[in-house]
């Protein structure tokens, strides 16, 4: 008879989506194995086949209600190639960038203040009834108010550039269908300085948290890995909208650099495992054991040579100095995420002062092609959209690799690291202990709906099993 | 007395079959051009809806519901504060609580649940029964909003059920 137990966290709370964590304990209550499973699959890539190429940037927004703009823009970039456009008119590219910075900003703010703040402010093991945003607001109402108003500002930018909050139509193959009117620009400009002040305050909170808890952070889901992101062509600056692919190994040495993202399939392979619907991508030349990598805010801080806005660049330098180079700490994602919020607001301010946003040359045309690949740095990390269309403009092939899928192996390693350190040897597994595992997952801000290309709710659960595969405990709740 | 400001938030994912009932209802009501009514359409409730809610005197949430035995149902939203808050799902209760906590005003809230059947697949368009339920809900809500605007006050205690 075997002597292990199995724990499942089901659902993990305050993440975007639905999945399950299983933790196997041996007879001595030591963690034997810990895995993040994705338990729902609906196959968006098949759904999109047969749709007209013009529809795709709108339809793909239905992948996710949280990051529809990222899918909208990645699909639009792919469709640019299909309509033969490699360079957009300045107004079109800048409107898309404005939309993207608004999206990244509001997504990061929502994650930091509303999903992670309860853990960071009250402690991972604090009573469950205290770990929620309402308690955060009671403790610091100003913080809660800023979070809502910052998110609202990001949403207003999306609405101004995409046309509406739901099924926005701003980005179209070859360009954009609107510019920014003066009245809207001035309304947004009236708020942007306040947003930048608040963004810097949020950055200070995240930075101080990591610095003040440096020993804990260094021992919580910290492990060496490759990091991958787009960087700006030529100088390697952080670029959330467009660039070339860079992957650095754990020591910071390039595995590939300035790679045309249309060649992503030459360097990345998606592996499948029997226990999860979410695929496991890896770098082909390194193989599945060594080729896994992480994406997202921290990966971007690790891969970017610098940031082209002053406040974020100074913060980037501070993070790199603190880390002594590459940073591999799961919880440092919070710091990185807030650096990106500052960067986005700086970029938004810069763009709002740019008269190109009032330009009227909105769409470019080119010679029709039959394949297109769009890659963008979404809030959670690198996002790849790949399509083929036929002569009737209908999609015949679709492949999506979303940020959470890129991070699959990294999240699994974080889950195991934290489970081993916080659950092993415990005579009784408490809800607070299990929340440590959830904190590790949450730091990646996973969107499990996107990752399985499903729609709607996908809560994540944790369950504990013994050696005979008997369920002995269960924790978590639906969002 | 200034005109009362009524907010209708219709939410759901139109790419998921009958989950699009909330947005469909909101779009039909919006097309009526009712004076004093603000209509918001979104994939889901999010935290920033709190600011919009706090700027109104009454809010109606419209969403699809599975397992509802009647075509639609209007019920008062419980003002008891929930303990959790996500981002894929912010409940009407949580949205009202946030409005009260952050902006000092949580208006009376009503939930219009519309019965749907087909949610599982990635597809556009409503099922025939959902479409029929939508028609009834639109007709009802149109009259209800007109009555609320006319009387100027909202019944806050009663639970309304329409079958």
In short:
The complex is a heterodimer of chains A (479) and B (163). Chain A has helices at 44-47, 56-59, 68-82, 90-122, 133-139, 141-162, 182-212, 214-218, 264-267, 287-290, 297-303, 310-323, 332-352, 403-406, 408-423, 431-442, 448-451; strands spanning 5-9, 20-25, 31-37, 171-172, 175-176, 226-231, 244-248, 254-259, 268-271, 280-283, 293-294, 371-378, 381-389, 395-401, 461-466, 471-475.
Amino-to-carboxy terminus distance of chain A: 38 Å
Q: Give the helix level of chain B as a range of percent.
A: 25-40%
What integer value in Å does the Rg of chain B equal? 15 Å
- Percentage of residues in strands of chain A: 15-25%
Average residue pLDDT of chain A? 88
Written overview of the protein:
The complex is a heterodimer of chains A (479) and B (163). Chain A contains 17 helices and 16 strands. Chain A is of the alpha+beta class. In chain A, the strands form five sheets. In chain A, strands 1, 2, 15 and 16 form a four-stranded mixed β-sheet that branches. A four-stranded mixed β-sheet of chain A has the order 8-7-6-11. The longest helix of chain A has 33 residues. Chain A is globular and about 70 Å long. About 2% of the residues of chain A have low confidence. Chain B has 163 residues and is of the alpha/beta class. Chain B has four helices and five strands; from the N terminus they run βαβαββαβα. Chain B has a single domain, classed as 3-Layer(aba) Sandwich (Rossmann fold). Chain B starts with 5 loop residues before the first strand and ends in a 12-residue tail after the last helix. Chain B has a five-stranded mixed β-sheet with strand order 2-1-3-5-4, with helices on both faces. The chains are: A alpha+beta (479), B alpha/beta (163). At the A-B interface, helix 4, helix 5 and helix 6 of A face helix 3 of B.
């Amino acid at each position: 008879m075997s002597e292990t137990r199995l724990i499942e966290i089901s659902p993990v709370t305050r993440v975007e989506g639905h999945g399950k964590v299983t933790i196997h304990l041996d007879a001595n209550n030591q963690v034997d194995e810990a895995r993040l499973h994705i338990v729902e699959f609906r196959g968006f890539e098949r759904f999109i086949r047969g749709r007209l190429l013009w529809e795709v940037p709108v339809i793909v927004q239905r992948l996710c209600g949280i990051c529809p703009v990222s899918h909208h823009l990645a699909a639009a970039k792919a469709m640019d190639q299909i309509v033969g456009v490699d360079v957009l008119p300045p107004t079109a590219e800048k409107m898309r960038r404005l939309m993207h910075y608004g999206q990244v900003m509001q997504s990061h703010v929502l994650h930091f203040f509303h999903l992670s703040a309860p853990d960071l402010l009250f402690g991972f093991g604090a009573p469950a009834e205290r770990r929620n945003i309402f308690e955060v607001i009671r403790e610091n109402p100003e913080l809660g108010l800023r979070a809502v108003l910052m998110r609202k500002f990001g949403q207003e930018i999306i609405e101004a550039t995409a046309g509406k909050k739901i099924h926005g139509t701003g980005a179209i193959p070859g360009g954009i269908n609107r510019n920014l009117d003066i009245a809207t620009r001035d309304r947004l400009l009236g708020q942007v300085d306040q947003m930048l002040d608040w963004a810097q305050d949020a950055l200070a909170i995240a930075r101080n948290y990591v610095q003040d808890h440096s020993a804990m952070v260094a021992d919580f889901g910290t492990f060496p890995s490759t990091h991958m992101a787009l960087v700006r062509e030529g100088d390697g600056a952080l670029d959330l909208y467009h660039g070339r692919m860079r992957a650095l190994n754990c020591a910071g040495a390039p595995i590939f650099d300035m790679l045309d993202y249309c060649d992503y399939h030459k360097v990345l392979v998606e592996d499948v495992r029997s226990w999860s619907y979410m695929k496991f991508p890896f770098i082909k030349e390194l193989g599945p054991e060594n080729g896994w990598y992480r994406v997202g805010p921290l990966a971007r801080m690790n891969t970017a040579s610098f940031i082209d806005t002053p406040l974020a660049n100074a913060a980037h330098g501070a993070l790199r100095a603190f880390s002594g180079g590459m940073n591999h700490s799961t919880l440092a994602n919070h710091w990185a995420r807030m650096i990106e919020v500052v960067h986005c607001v700086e970029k938004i301010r810069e763009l709002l002062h740019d008269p190109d946003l009032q330009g009227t040359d909105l769409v470019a045309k080119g010679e029709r092609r039959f394949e297109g690949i769009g890659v963008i740095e979404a809030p959670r990390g690198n996002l790849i959209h790949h399509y083929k269309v036929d002569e009737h403009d209908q999609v015949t092939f679709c492949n999506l690799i979303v940020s959470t899928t890129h991070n699959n192996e990294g999240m699994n390693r974080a889950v195991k690291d934290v489970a081993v350190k916080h659950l092993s040897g415990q005579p009784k597994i408490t809800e607070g202990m299990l929340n440590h595992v959830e904190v590790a997952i949450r730091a990646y801000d996973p969107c499990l709906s996107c990752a399985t290309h499903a729609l709607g709710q996908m809560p994540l659960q944790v369950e504990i099993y013994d050696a005979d595969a008997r369920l002995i405990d269960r924790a978590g709740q639906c969002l | 007395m200034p005109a009362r400001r009524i907010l209708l938030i219709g939410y759901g994912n139109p790419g998921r079959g009958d989950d699009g009932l909330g947005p469909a209802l909101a779009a039909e009501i919006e097309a009526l051009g009712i004076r004093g009514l603000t209509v918001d359409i979104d994939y889901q409730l999010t935290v920033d809806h709190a600011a919009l809610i706090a700027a109104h005197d009454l809010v109606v949430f419209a969403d699809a519901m599975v397992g509802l035995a009647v075509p639609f149902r209007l019920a008062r939203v419980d003002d008891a504060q929930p303990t959790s808050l996500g981002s894929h799902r912010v409940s009407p209760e949580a949205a009202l609580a946030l409005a009260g906590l952050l902006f000092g005003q949580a208006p009376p809230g009503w939930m219009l649940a519309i019965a749907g059947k087909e949610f599982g697949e990635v597809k556009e368009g409503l099922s025939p029964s959902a479409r029929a339920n939508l028609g009834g809900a639109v007709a009802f809500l149109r009259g209800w909003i007109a009555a609320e605007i006319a009387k100027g006050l909202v019944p806050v205690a009663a639970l309304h059920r329409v079958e």
